Amino acid sequence: MAMRPAVRNRGIMLIVFSIVQWLFMRYILANNLFSLDTNDRIVYFCLSSIIGAFMFFVGLIYMVLKGNPEKE
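The chain above was modelled as a monomer; its predicted structure follows.
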């Protein structure tokens, strides 16, 4: 895959950050570290999943759009 290294590194960094933040939030919710009731836990899980998925796809789209050098 012919991709500029800086773009690849930024894209992978976004993808890894999205997965780590989702796992961190999942750990918090599974162990009930914030003493949340069931409805709050559901809301936080849904929000963290949506944000994680959004950041994951932003990283992929960023690599696709900015990855290849411009050809003139």
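The longest helix spans residues 38-66.
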